[in-house]
Amino acid sequence: MPENDITEIILKYSFKIHTALGPGLLESVYTECLFYELVKAGLFVEKQKVLPVVYETITLETGFRIDLFVEGKVIVELKAVEALDQIHLAQTLTYLRLSNCKVGLLINFNVMSLKAGIRSVVNNFQS
User: Is residue 57 part of a domain?
Assistant: First the structure.
């Protein structure tokens, strides 16, 4: 399935969840709900997937955790913060680069209109 189709499904269910629950909950609640919806929709989703950091000849398994990794192609980073900041974008770009993925979604559920909390992130530096 192409990345665009996957992101469309992710966004569809993100809007559904935000409409039902609104802002103000913990990130973990939104993560669980989106995981549930995506799996129910038939997608392969890994939750809190460990992303090791490789530096020269060592691999650090305690690197990072991707909130949701969908179909092995799209990284979803969920937030429940006052506003998305550059550090959130940098984190998502780092995850994309380390996993050699092209597309990511950065979604902040702590907004009145979810449209304002969505950032599509593209990795232009794939190896």
Answer: yes
Burial of 7 (0-12, 13-18, 19+ CB in 10 A): buried
| Radius of gyration over every alpha carbon of the chain, rounded to an integer in angstroms | 14
- Do you know the residue count of the chain? 127
For the chain, the domain total comes to 1
65-99 pLDDT, tens digit each? 999 999 999 999 999 999 999 999 999 999 999 88
pTM of the full structure: 0.93
Q: What is the pLDDT of residues 43-59, one digit of tens each?
A: 999 999 998 888 899 98
Residue 127 inside a domain? The answer is: no
Q: From the CB of residue 2, how many other CB atoms can be counted at a distance below 10 Å?
A: 10
